[in-house]
Queue: 3 jobs
Job 1
Amino acid sequence: MQDSTLPGTRDAAGIFRPPYLWVTVGTCALVFLAAFESLAVTTIMPLVSRELDGAGLYALAFAGPLATGVIGMVGAGNWSDRRGPALPLYTSVVLFVAGLLIAGTSLSMPMLVAGRLVQGLGGGALTVALYVLVARFFPGPLHARIFAAFSAAWVVPSLVGPFAAGVVAQVFSWHWVFLGVVGLVIPALAMIVPVLRGMDDHDADGQPAGTGQPRKTAPPWALGRLGWAALAALAVLGLNLSADADIPGFPAATALLAGAAVVLALVAVRPLVPSGTLAARRGLPSVILARGLASAAFFGAEVYLPYLLIAQYAFPPTLAGLTLTGGALAWAGAAAVQGRLGTRLPHGRAVQSGALMVLAAITLALATTALHWPAATAIGGWVLAGGGMGLLYPRLSVMTLALSAKEDEGFNSSAMSISDSLGGALSLATTGIVFAAFTTPVQSFAGVFAFTAALGCAAALVAPRVTTPAPPAG
């Protein structure tokens, strides 16, 4: 899978040593900025909604980027398989920046939502293009380390993003939370341009330019998959909107709409992931499925933990938000540890251990809610959840690339990102419906944690199937 002509073939070098240093810094900076912007918007959106009189579009401002991101993932994956990651990466950055500019200069809520949709399209494509870049440039032994760095780049903004966004919005304006990121994206991209120049050096038929050497014909444009991606995006939006459905005289409307949206999403996602994914077939299909289930369980529970502490334990909002810091630090720490252990920690063991840790943490949150245990139980448990995600997330990324032929790296990377995005989006929308279905706060929180624990249990059951049994000796 690794191109021997690239400097990435010298396996002995670390990701922060030549020739990988600037590519590592540039790619991690792009991941960091995408994560920072996502988390920062959560902080400023109440202010934005009030100033632009856009309460009716508040939920769509969050759901929209997740939905359009699915389309960007599929498009970037197909394009990367055809021509390499350079052009998809350039295009994704342009779309991401365009979305930031539209949102940052918005004078109305519909304009801001439009910017968020464009931004989500670029952000989804950016993730996939970066994964393909990792596959083409970094040798296999370094994949665990670069993905650990990506995990840290996602986690660190959760520590500083909300606070920094609040300061910027208060001292300057919420507009600069969007516009300020634009000035940082360009230098980050510039760091990896020298490497990208040599990655799209073949013609439209997939033949290496100027060499006359044979090469497999480039995959065709997968217009059908783009259509299915659009349908999946609509399903995600529909599920999010169904949480707010209120049809007089028909109390079951919300459940029916939500069920239809979930079914539509599952039908639409089948052509976008490897065959056998929804059936948990051993190997790559289970790798993709485990990623989606882990995302659904973790993020579905995480957003309700601060809410639980505020509503049931009288925590001030600032302190309740800081309780997630332990989980974020544990995620980064566990990701770094598994990266250094490399093959000394087998992939299967890392994924299974991580899934069980996430399940145990959500179970502790459920027990804390139902049995009125001290808040410290759930808070401490979330450190365990972060450590579990730090173990399994980077390893699933490594396994996806390791199990991909070069011509399938884009498709499989997009499948992993789609599983991530759809898993989290469907879980968040469903937990909103579950929370609203009960009459008391304790029942509502218990219902949410029970649902996410079921997702965590499913992830733990799928985890042993990410590896295939070794053939019998002799």
Job 2
Amino acid sequence: MILLLHNIRSCHNVGSILRTADGFGVPTAIFSGYTPRYNDINLLPHLREKLNHQIEKTALGAEHYLDLQTSESILQTLDDLHSQGYLILGLENNLSDPRKIELTPTNLSRFSSALHSRSKSPEKLALLLGEEVAGIDKSLYSKIDYFLEIPMKGKKESFNVSIATGICLFCLSNL
């Protein structure tokens, strides 16, 4: 499993996602777009220190256990992952797309069967996370094999991206 954090705005969300990823044994996180990066060598030292501190507040050390990478072109990265046999999953809500799967036990069972019937190994999954408010950039939709959606029962339309990531990783770990 690989996590792709594209255009995540909040350092606190980034840190929380890294901590959750470590908890589920996800070895790699790839940052792209304007997602704040831990130890970003392209930043001036004082800015890097400030961002690191903010990420560390919620990552609580997990930033040291994951392989953190940067993608200069998310489209190229998605193509590269496809060519390596990865199935690209997009975590998105309120989407009407035939590739959408709600994260419910019944749908996860159907999804698991679909994974095992494909030629791609189900062990190679890449989960794409998008911007906190706008979600995944629509220009990336064609690169996504399946969209995963968490059904909402309350009045709100979505979870915080770090919470949604935890729910999604929990569901995927039980396939």
Job 3
Amino acid sequence: MAVPDSTVPATSHVAGILHRTYLWVTIGTCSLVFLAAFESLAVTTIMPLVSRELDGAGLYALAFAGPLATGVIGMVAAGNWSDRRGPAAPLYASVGLFVAGLLIVGTSASMPLLVAGRLVQGLGGGALTVALYVLVARVFPGVLHPKIFAAFSAAWVIPSLVGPFAAGIVAQVFSWHWVFLGVVGLVVPALLMIAPVLRRMPQQASAAAGTPWAAGRLAWAVLAAVAVLALNLSAQVHTPGVPAATAVLAVAAVVMAMVAVRPLVPRGTLMARPGLPSVILARGLASAAFFGAEVYLPYLLIEQYAFAPTFAGLTLTGGALAWAGASAVQGRLGARLPHRSAVSVGALMVLTAVLLALATSALHWPAAAAIAGWVLAGGGMGLLYPRLSVMTLALSTKDNEGFNSSAMSIADSLGGALALATTGIVFAAFTTTAASFAGVFGLAAVVALAAVSVAPRVTTPSP
């Protein structure tokens, strides 16, 4: 018999997230999420210009893969620190690292220095995500978690509408340096909005606070980061006369990543054990399916349907708007939409969208099928993403909120990174463009099907 979904009360008189009790912490946390998302999208827009100016084509891929890899280390460190002492110190440290990375990148005169700044940025950005999740658990009551995570989703999605255009304008009118330096001036005020809450938050007094640092988990995080980086770089390896070299490197990196991730997630995650392990696994699978397919959708429209790049990019905008809309809807529905139902329906929507993209590429269906499908995919992610965040906190205690939040973020990061690198290898393996697109969307569909199969296992035990 299914366990009832009881983490969100059916009725509550708790003030909303914009009530004066929570107003500034809501604005501050959402601003930090917004700025991290804006910077991530801005880099994609201006990096070709940066690479050309700094003569850094050889380090182009590393500028993207590096922050993803170091972010895993930041996630584990922030989770461990938060469990020991609460989220205040990790949040200050993560913002400090993020700002330091922005300053290094924004003042870089060479590509190696820029990549070094990106590595520091990724370390701070990964830690920031985990610290914010723990802060939400400590400040907001459980009934408001769906709403604050819906706000986080909107704060992440909105930059996809304005970020690339704004970054291009700043780079053209001023300099690409100000795309990074300008964000620094906005991060500090956002942190100041949260500072009063952090000052009132006592250091965590628990058995975990006196335990030593989990050095072993940090070591596994470093190994996982190396694996992510190796897999991303394997997609760039083309060894003349040795066609199997890329595949061997990729398989080795995947195996290393799977070995390294086991101590970083709840026991039973890779086996889809019901409860929290399946919540974490579903998050990783959904990320892998969605982002693994999303990066190839504009490419498909440009290559096979002769779309202009700007028009092809609007497809992603449609998905982003649907994500934000569905996040708002699930937040308003609260307990009327059970967690397991939200996750199951959301995963099925993502699978349907990827299958539409596969049919469009393989059977030459009208482009409208893939475009409409991606709006459906965005809606699916908007339903399941916030609910998986809510369930992670609902299934955590004060002693393991940091570990579980970092596990969820690691699942996001590793899921997306492994999918992007693997789809890159699959795309290069076929001899025709049509077959390459079909292979990519076919792989994403298999991952989405796995997410659908895991979704019913994300049960929440009764309190």
